[in-house]
Amino acid sequence: EVQLVESGGGLVQAGGSLRLSCATSGFNFDGYAIGWSRQAPGKEREAVACIANSDGMTYYSDSGKGRFTVSSDSSKNTVYLQMNSLKPEDTAVYYCYASTTRLDDYEVGCLYEQNYWGKGTLVTVSS
What we know:
The protein is mainly beta and 127 residues long. The chain is built from 1 helix and 11 strands; from the N terminus they run E-E-E-E-E-E-E-E-E-H-E-E.
């Protein structure tokens, strides 16, 4: 079965950094795009970043570009999200997801076709 397990969340002060990890199992890692989405209190879930395992291309939503970096280690079937210069508005539950998108517009598919999710890890940024 497909499993994605997030870790690395916690409490951090504004301006600080945090690295999240997503350990995956139960599927062909190289055949999926793996990304991160988040859900802030009282808000809808939104895409943050995605990496295409086929070629290593990365994509970022408006929420994720500039301060966040997504990377992967295929030998460990693990994806990371490095978050720098954190702001209070980054406070959210962060979810790892797997995408099986085959859209011609791969950026859109990678970021928004989210087929499987983990249970999330909470990131709290204090001001």
